[in-house]
Amino acid sequence: MAALLDPQNGRMDIVSGDRRKRGGFSQGFTGTDSVFYSAGFAGSYNDLRVLTHESTHAVHRQLMNRNQVLPAYAEGPHYLFEAFAIFNEFLLPDYLYNHETDGLLRQFYLQQFLAGKGTVMFAVAPEVELEHSVYEGVKQGTIKNADDLDTLSQKIYSRYLLQPKDELKTKWMTVSLMYEDPFYDINYIYGALLALNFYQMYLRDPQHFVPRYIALMKNGFNAPPEILLKRFLDLDLNDPRLIGNALRVVEDKVNLLEKTYQQ
Fold first, then answer.
1. pTM summary value
2. Which of helix, strand or coil describes residue 4?
């Protein structure tokens, strides 16, 4: 991480300007140093969150690189990539909260835990269902025009949101990733689910968790994800308790946040 952030290494591009690609991302491949790009960095919390998320991808690739992972094993299921990055997104507000004395700032960092990727699987779930339903509808001949998409959006989002139904019709227009990177959204659901479990394991026993977690990042993808997670973290990808564990983490943060509001 220090090497990535060092300007002398030329691995960071964060200067704003005209005709810059929006957002931020990381790139890297076996045998090369990974890099980080951002459309700009003004010092906001969200800028730092994006840097934290994307730099994790860069560090992950660099760890595999140093471990001489073969190119064929340097790529794997993207929900695991996202799980690593989202976990670091949790550590950022957690660290800031624990090192802050100002009550309002502590409250802000609690909010950011939830507003970032803490609850992303709930926000992304209707997007994933909508995207898959669009493809199924086209295949079956039930989706032919914008009115059909309005009807489908209203039906799906009404199960997740309490907004007036008429406001839900055009949700299909706002799911940007559905157009930019089809079928990627689902990685954030599984990624967040795993990251919340990582976070719980980290809080419970950091001395035991951290070296095994880093070993998993360094290893690459020479086996299916369920085998890797079991081997390194003793975590069963098919265990239904993963959902309960994740919800407990969110519930604890919500309860803590409610206490700060009362104070």
1. 0.92
2. helix
Query: What kind and span of H or E run contains 226?
Result: helix 225-233
Distance, CA of 76 to CA of 217 (rounded, Å): 11
Cβ atoms of 83 and 190 closer than 8 Å: yes
Distance CA 91, CA 203 (A): 10
Which residues are within 8 A (CB) of 163 and not within 5 positions of it... i.e. 6 or more apart? 157
- Chain-centroid distance, C-alpha 13: 21
* pLDDT tens digits for range 161-199: 988 888 999 999 999 999 999 999 999 999 999 999 999
Local structure of residue 222 (DSSP, 8 states): S
Element (H, E) at 247: helix 241-262
C-alpha to C-alpha distance for 175 and 55, rounded to whole angstroms:
24
CA pair distance 13, 229, nearest whole angstrom:
33
